[in-house]
Amino acid sequence: MFIWTAKVNRRKIYLVLAAAVIVCGAVLAATVLGGRGAEASASISPKGIKTEEDRIAYLGAWGWQVSPDAVTVEELELPKDFGPEYSEYLSLQSGQGFDLTKYAGKRVKRYTYSVGNYPTGDAGVKAHLLLFRNTVVGGEILGDGFLHGLEMPT
Known about the structure:
This protein is of the alpha+beta class.
């Protein structure tokens, strides 16, 4: 038979219990308050997006169900100087946490996917992802007469 005894300070027990309550509260708050939008983009990193599956999973983190293969893949060269005609587009991207000005003059790949779950049921809706060296640097959802960020509209 083995008996183990220890002298435990009540203050230490209370500190451990308080820390456990704080950790559980933080986890619960993140679960309950977590939604789409900026939180969705944080759930999957824009870095290390190397494969088709990675790109589909990234769009899925925003709530989009897309075609299993890209409809088109294009290589684009971003302008060296973004003129005033790009201000609205740059604003759209920066609102999602993307800064395209850091990639001025660089070559990026644009992957286009068909969206199957647009809330209004519109057909022909596409999702674009702009990637530079396996990192998502921009993206948008577009259809007939609209263009918006990756966040699912309500």
